[in-house]
# Entry
Amino acid sequence: MNFVISVIHAVADPISAATFLCNALGFKNTCQSTEAVIVENGAIALRLVPDNTARQGDGGCLNLELQTRNMAQATAELLVLPDVSLIAQPVAVNPARVESRLQGPQGILITLVQEFNEDELGIIPPLPTSLIWNEDAEDCIRQMLRLIPVSFRESARIRITERAEMLTAEEAEITVTMNFAVQALADVTPLFQHPMLMSALRQRGIDPSGYFDRGTVS
Amino acid sequence: MIPQLLSIVPKTLHWCRIGLGLRRLKRANPEERAHAQQALATLLADSRGLAMKMGQVMAGSDDNNAFQPLVSSIEPLPLSAVQGCLENQLIQSLRSIDESTAAASLGQVHHAVLQNGADVAVKIRYPGIVEAVRAELKLTGWLPDAGPVKRWRFNSADYKNTLHRQLLRETDYRIEMQTQQRFKERLKVPGLHIPAIYSDLCTDAVLVQSWESGCRYSEACSWPKKSRLEIGRTLLMTLWQSLFVHGEVHGDPHPGNYLFRIDQQDNAQTVLLDFGCTVLIDRQRRLALLKLLDACHAGREIDALRCFVAMGFDAEKLAYLNTKMPELCNILFRPFLVQRPFHTMEWRLSTSLQASLGEQRWWFRAAGPADLMLLLRAFHGVGQQLEQLDIALPWWPLLRHVVGDALLEEARALELPAPANSRVTGMTYAGARRLSVRITENGVSTVSLDLPAEAATDLASIIPKPVMAEIQTALDIDLSGLTRRLQQEGISPQELFSLDNGHKQCRVWLE
Ligand SMILES: Nc1ncnc2c1ncn2[C@@H]1O[C@H](COP(=O)(O)OP(=O)(O)OP(=O)(O)O)[C@@H](O)[C@H]1O
# Structure
């Protein structure tokens, strides 16, 4: 038996709500009867049920969060739709997240969200260290991590740090030096990234030969 | 319920032991006697006292205070009261000696300066303490072979012998002197310092060693991270090197036995004190532990039960936990299994053991030889100290570094002893080996216990009181009559009783 997450939303007019969700927000109408209209977008199923007491435009019953890479453009696109109005201008809830709120038809509330990754924010996060790191070793790894696609970077950051600390402890040391850091970088990153990392290391004046011939550690 | 019961045992015992011990203290003069009495009482009452510690070890290391610093300590005697113990040779070598500020368990420590200007620590045994200890040791049956001790069939003789040996050793400072010299010679751990012994000035009642400066644990816990990491590394490597390489472990690693300081190279130094109590683990046993750790770390299949048996565990008792072995190893060895620095806060040894094994964790404790249980506590103690230092260290690579490839290979190649043919030995109770108790309420199992058959004579403390009351009303069982019958007729396989009142099912049987 399979279960799907389904949200029940009572609306005055299920068909017009479904039309808005399908036309504006990319949902698909999967089932329609007098009792309910079901729409889904692969992540969530909405069961829109008729309720005469629900008033048209009643806000806040169904709050949908939409991720966007461009807040201004997404807001403009939504506002040209009928029955959509802006209720809160974009605000930064924290440096990495901006939110704005729009009211749609049939009690549908839209929260538009734009999240910024470390590249967009122009930051280089610290390594999640447990041991002591030499400054140059930590700086080198933080810079090298920028070369790794941002979506893989967080897990790479953790794995490289842990690996370097394990290598350090193998020598009964508690300070991670450049040697352990570069070896960890080589051990953890996939082979196809090695040439790029090796040339970046050379540019920093570090000779990568000897580190990158062990293959990767799974 | 059972753990609570068990923890009461040592306390009760310890009071009657002190009482008896004190009555036999007759030989010393009144003042000395009073002081020795007080010292002994403090030793036994304090969690660090060996006797209490044994009880606690048996009762389980759930008591997290076992390694806390001494909370109550007796006042040291004035120098005039103990100087009679000092031999002429020592007196002549001393330029000065201060009043003591540190009462130890069986003696007290004075700062002194030798004629050559060297600062020394002079530990002087309390007058009258040897007699007090001897009297103490004459007491037999310090743990009654009844109740919980019997229920889980703890090897109380083993515990008792270990206690006796240790207490006797602690009264002769020459043994401590030799141990300390041995540790100093053997242990090569970064940051570890063991005070030098002045052997020609030592006697059975006086131990002279270099005076060491340093701060206490609580202060070191607020040092910068680098120093705390150095201390943590020293603690871990000291434990592993003493255990796996030398087979002799400091048996009392509580915070009061360390001093900490920063050396001229700005590295943290750990001074290890007090070699009165050590645990000896022979080669075969420690290799078996290393073999098991290595296999668990690498995720290789291994017969964990046979490894434990090779370490000295009782095969018959452990057999009850056979299916739980992988889980048990995962809990016990967790810091060695993760491929990253481990913060011991994540360990939660007691809670995890309880969650995974429930009451059956007592099988594990009861199966373990007394000395290994002390070792488990030493591990646990170091774990707690690392937690207080608030650091995470990679355990496995540090261990590997300490043991080296050769020893690891030797451990991998170790042939484990063949499993015993007949698991059932020494059956004294007309057949039944196991008492099983199952209680289900509204379809949910609330009690599922397998105990040694002998526990059938102690049902009252196994079955929760409200359930027992219900059973007695419903079935009209005379519990003491049942106990008597089993004692008279022998404990043979049988159904003792069962109850099913719709929402609750209870079945108790011997098999
Ligand atoms: N070499 C030393 N330098 C400085 N102080 C010392 C030295 N040895 C012992 N002390 C002090 O004396 C105290 C007791 O010493 P020690 O631990 O050796 O005695 P003990 O009888 O084994 O006591 P306990 O069982 O309470 O640990 C120590 O906590 C420490 O304060």
Summary: Chain A has a mean pLDDT of 89.
